[in-house]
Structures are given as structure tokens and as C-alpha cells.
Specification:
By secondary structure, this protein is an all-alpha fold. It has helices at residues 11-29, 32-42, 65-69, 72-108, 115-164, 172-185, 195-204, 215-219, 224-234, 239-273, 279-303, 314-329, 348-359, 367-379, 383-403, 411-414, 417-421, 425-441. It binds fe (ii) ion (FE2) (2 copies).
């Protein structure tokens, strides 16, 4: 690995160092991850099934015409399914974080002064493994209890269909071309690959075996070559690019916080009243606390630390802007008819989820009735769309505040104007009508 010569510590560097040290000390001393693991081990759905896990506003189909007609028991289940589906997406995103934390930690390890940062990133990565395990275990047990194994298998089938779109083998020449392009643009004969990237490539032949399914993968349309291309740049030895990954990570942190902060407040309310606290509520609350350390680090690296390192080249600025632009278009690119805290448009897998819920013993609908309600909830305007817009607007305002003074960003990224233009109700309904036609053609009612 090459070592870039250290600049003498600047005022910002001292500020950065201090914040890294404090975050690492506090994060190491905390026991939130251990609590999450204990809760995950002891979880069983029946012991938690009679209680809300968050405010009713955080429920699948909230404020839709179906929700208005649902019984108290059905509403409770919709609240639990909201937790399952959202944390399923979060666990996919944290899988991406695990990869790129390690990719960038290797780059930072070239700087003796950043050893505590590397330790912090190793700790965060370990914590993400526990988070992912808890979200998956609790989420799957919940979904299995509510929509049955058959419903869950049907859902997984749709999800794998989505991922196979990007699973066609990457042509080697395409991969090599992008790799060489990144090396040329970094003005190097070959990329100064970090050991983590070298191992990944040696193991898989390419950096990734399959596209990732979290906020980054979705934003890149599950494109393996583009995801690898970003990997070459984030892990190619440039400190600016390694810091840039954290502009993507802070988007994910703020996305999550916009939903999870509400659950953390719900936890406090129950605790104050001395009421029963469901396990998933407690997991969300401890996750919120763990993630506050990660958010501090993302913020620091994205906003301050890069200023201490050699200035970005025009090429690096271009790649950095492109990645943020793609996030606006992807994971921030719309609203859902049925998930008040999902900031991208619906796709067939969401229609399939609702269809399976309606057909499960929970609602007991026939094929025909289930299809009727899917169309009504996804393709006709209702209050749920407006709830989603309001939640997304809060995130938009927070992202705008965060990116406002970034000097290297295009104005479309500084102002998040692409995200702002993609959040309309009419656009979402138009998109859903198209998807519904495709969905209905593969679900011809038999009764
Ligand atoms: Fe996490
Ligand atoms: Fe995290």
C-alpha cells in the first residue's frame, strides 16, 4: 500500500481527531449492541404480538382506505409488518455498509494519525453484523407468523427476480475497462488496491458476486459494474474518495433516523408510563443509539475530514457528484402508497407483499378481492400518499441542511433538487398504475 505523506495537523485536523477519539471512546464503552443481541436471542413473536411496536402512523397501509376498514387486530399486524419490511431494507443497506467500511478503513490505515478512526470503523462493522442478524431474525419470524411460509416464499421469489436482473455475469472486458479507467483517472498505472478489495477480487474474480439490495444497490439499479466502479474509486487509495463514501453513508444514516427516531420516542413514552416494551421497539431504540455514533463519524468524514487531505481532482469531483445524484434518483426517488417511511416508489415486490397479506389468514381475501384492494390502495389517491410526502419532506429538509455548504457539489446535489422533483403524489400514482398492469397480468384471479 502506498503511503501518502502526512500533512502537518491543521486546526480542522485537531477538531477531527478530537471528535474521532471521543466517538470511539463513547462507542467502545456503550453496551447497546450487546443489548440488541440479547433481545434478538430471546425474541418470539407471540410474546410481542398484542402490542404496537411503534406509533400506528408507522404501519403498512396506514391511512389507506383498507386501513380505515381494518379491525384492531389487523391494524396491529400491519404495524408489525411495517417493522419487518423496513428493517429488511435497512439490513440490506447495512450489508453494503459492512463492505465499504472495510474498503475505506484500509485506505485510512495508510495514515498513522487515523488509527483510531480505523479502530472505530472496525467496531462499527462488528456492530452492523449484530444489527443485521437481529433485524433478519426478528423480521422473518414476524413475517412467517403473519403471512405464513408460503406468502414469505412468494415474496422472496419476487425479490430474487428483481436481483437476477443485475445478476447476469459481468463481461470481464467491461469490468477490466472500468477498473483501468479508474486507475488512469487516479493518475496511476494501477489502482493502489487496499487489501480488503484485493481479497474480495481474488475470491469472486470480480468485486461483487451479486448486486447488493440496499440503498446503494437500488440507487445503481442493481448494476454490478457500476457498484464495482464505485468500489475501485472508494478503495483506490485516494483519501478524498474514501471520505466521499461517507456522503453516501450519511444519506443512509439520515434516511434511517427519519423513521427510527419516532420508534425511539415511542420507547421512551412506554418506559415513562411503565408499560410493556415490545422487543422490536427496544431493538430499534438501542439501534438508534448505536447509529448515533455511526452518524457522527459519517458526518465528520463527509463534511470535515476531506478538507485535511489533498484536494479532489476534477475526475474525483465528477464521480462523487454522480454517486450522490444516483442516490437522489434511486433510494430517495419517490414515495410509496403503503409505506409511510419509504422514500422511493413502489415496485412489484411491494404489491406482492400487500397481495399476500390480504390473502393470508389475517384478512382471508379471495384472489379477486385482494387484487381489487391492491389496485385501490396503490393506484387511487388516498391520505397515505400525503403522509408519505410529509415524512419525505422532513428528510429532504435535513439532507438540504447537511449538503448546503459543500463546495465541490453540483447545485442539483447541494440543493437535493432531483429528490425534491420526484416526490409528487401524481407521479407515484402514474408509476403504480403501470406496475399494477404488469402485476395483474401475472395474477389472474381464479375466484
Ligand atoms: Fe446498524
Ligand atoms: Fe450504522
Amino acid at each position: 500500500m502506498t503511503s501518502t505523506s502526512l500533512k502537518p495537523p491543521s486546526r480542522t485536523s485537531r477538531k477531527v481527531q478530537k471528535l474521532i477519539n471521543t466517538t470511539y471512546r463513547n462507542n467502545s464503552a456503550s453496551d447497546y449492541t450487546e443489548k440488541i443481541d440479547e433481545l434478538c436471542q430471546s425474541f418470539n413473536y407471540p410474546s410481542n404480538s398484542l402490542h404496537y411496536w411503534s406509533d400506528p402512523q408507522q404501519s403498512l397501509l396506514y391511512a389507506s382506505p383498507l386501513y380505515e376498514e381494518a379491525s384492531p387486530n389487523q391494524k396491529l399486524a400491519l404495524n408489525h409488518l411495517h417493522w419487518f419490511a423496513n428493517y429488511n431494507y435497512i439490513s440490506n443497506s447495512e450489508t453494503e455498509t459492512v463492505i465499504f467500511n472495510q474498503v475505506t478503513a484500509d485506505v485510512f490505515s495508510s495514515q498513522a494519525s487515523l488509527q483510531t478512526l480505523v479502530d472505530e470503523l472496525v467496531l462499527e462493522t462488528e456492530q452492523e453484523h449484530y444489527h443485521i442478524k437481529a433485524f433478519r431474525k426478528i423480521g422473518l419470524a414476524t413475517a412467517k407468523a403473519l403471512i405464513g411460509r408460503q406468502g414469505l416464499n412468494a415474496l422472496l421469489k419476487w425479490n430474487s427476480y428483481k436481483l437476477t436482473l443485475g445478476k447476469e455475469p459481468i463481461p470481464t472486458y467491461q469490468y477490466r475497462t472500468l477498473r483501468s479507467l479508474a486507475a488512469i483517472m487516479h493518475r496511476k498505472a494501477r489502482l493502489q488496491y487496499t487489501s480488503y478489495l484485493r481479497n474480495l477480487e481474488a475470491e469472486n474474480q470480480f468485486l461483487f458476486k451479486a448486486p447488493t439490495a440496499g440503498m446503494l444497490g437500488r440507487s445503481l439499479n442493481y448494476s454490478l459494474p457500476i457498484e464495482s466502479f464505485l468500489g475501485f474509486n472508494w478503495g483506490g487509495g485516494s483519501l478524498f474518495m474514501a471520505c466521499h463514501f461517507y456522503t453516501i453513508r450519511i444519506i443512509a444514516n439520515l434516511y434511517l433516523k427519519n423513521m427510527e427516531h419516532g420508534i425511539a420516542k415511542f420507547y421512551q413514552k412506554l418506559k415513562k408510563r411503565g408499560e410493556f416494551i415490545p422487543t422490536p421497539t427496544a431493538v430499534s431504540r438501542y439501534h438508534f443509539l448505536d447509529e448515533s455514533f455511526h452518524t457522527s463519524i459519517s458526518q465528520l468524514l463527509a463534511k470535515d475530514a476531506y478538507r485535511d487531505f489533498p484536494q479532489a481532482t476534477a475526475y474525483e469531483k465528477f464521480v462523487a457528484n454522480l454517486a450522490i445524484y444516483k442516490m437522489q434518483q434511486g433510494t430517495l426517488g419517490g414515495i410509496s402508497a403503503v409505506f409511510p417511511h419509504r422514500y422511493f416508489g413502489d415496485d412489484c415486490s411491494v404489491l406482492e407483499l400487500v397481495y399476500r397479506v390480504l390473502q393470508s389468514s389475517l384478512f382471508g381475501m379471495s384472489d379477486r378481492d385482494a387484487l381489487y384492494w391492491v389496485e385501490r390502495c396503490f393506484c387511487q389517491e388516498h391520505q397515505g400518499f400525503h403522509e408519505a410526502v410529509a415524512n419525505r419532506q422532513r428528510l429532504l429538509a435535513e439532507l438540504r441542511r447537511f449538503f448546503a455548504d459543500f463546495d465541490y457539489l453540483w447545485s442539483v446535489n447541494r440543493n437535493m433538487s432531483l429528490m425534491a422533483s420526484l416526490g409528487g403524489v401524481e407521479r407515484a400514482i402514474g408509476n403504480n398504475r403501470q406496475i399494477f398492469r404488469q402485476f395483474a397480468s401475472s395474477h389472474t384471479p381464479e375466484n
